[in-house]
Amino acid sequence: MERVLVIGGARALGAAVARRAAKDGYDVVVGARDLAAADALAGGIGATAVRVDLQDESTLAAAARRLKDGIDHIVTTGSAPHDVRVTELDRDRLLAAFTAKVVGPMLVAKHFAPVLRPAGSMVLFSGVVGWRPRPGSLVKGVTNGAVEYAVRHLAADLAPVRVNAVSPGVVDSGAWDRLGDRKTALLSNSADQTFVGRHGEADDVVDTVMWLLRAGFVSGETIHIEGGARHKSA
Ligand SMILES: NC(=O)c1ccc[n+]([C@@H]2O[C@H](COP(=O)([O-])OP(=O)(O)OC[C@H]3O[C@@H](n4cnc5c(N)ncnc54)[C@H](OP(=O)(O)O)[C@@H]3O)[C@@H](O)[C@H]2O)c1
């Protein structure tokens, strides 16, 4: 049975990946900075839980020690958004955003390289904002763009372990529920920005992540799951 660690696995898209992987017969480890939340999800899907905080390298080292018997795949969904105009940048939040999406996954690779099995893979999360600049998109856009380069270079470094990214468009993952009444407008506007005329669903992303775990001849790639949004003019 292949083992997959899902970082950010207690919530939203990470939880959706963890649930599907468990259903598909993987040995799932839910990694989250909130161990109680990871335990709660893991208990319901026959998985185990481990504390992983992408902002704290010691938790990455400890998780790799816990999983020293070997791991096949790591999916890392973490993000720490800082969606402000350039004049409002906060240095700590800027660094936290890069750590969640780019530096953290690179350190995950550092600590897990000795335990990742050769036929295994990593999947990082980018996002469409990397390709659609607008006022306020600076941090999300640059971190998402950096993920595309991170997977190319990690793929070279970790080979034959494969490293890829998914880049979702706007997806109703649960994360947007915090917008309350404004969520419907966001999803509807995002649908207008695609060729396919709809927003993304969690299953659109999960289907692609599960395919990447098995896609043995795909490495260093970013797969865009956004209905053509990068190509459609405003
Ligand atoms: N949903 C969309 O429309 C969309 C669009 C484009 C790209 N994406 C990308 O897809 C990924 C997942 O997004 P989402 O929709 O599931 O919602 P999200 O709220 O962005 O999910 C982020 C996940 O990262 C975890 N996380 C944050 N900081 C962490 C840390 N220091 N250590 C470990 N985990 C940490 C969160 O866990 P906690 O519960 O601990 O906060 C949560 O599980 C993100 O990278 C996001 O940028 C999403």
TrEMBL record:
The keyword Oxidoreductase applies. It holds the Pfam family adh_short_C2. GO terms for molecular function: oxidoreductase activity. The keyword Oxidoreductase applies. It comes from the Bacteria. Keywords: Oxidoreductase. PANTHER family: DIHYDROANTICAPSIN 7-DEHYDROGENASE. Belongs to the short-chain dehydrogenases/reductases (SDR) family. This is Short-chain dehydrogenase. It comes from Streptomyces fuscichromogenes. The lineage of its organism: Bacteria, Bacillati, Actinomycetota, Actinomycetes, Kitasatosporales.
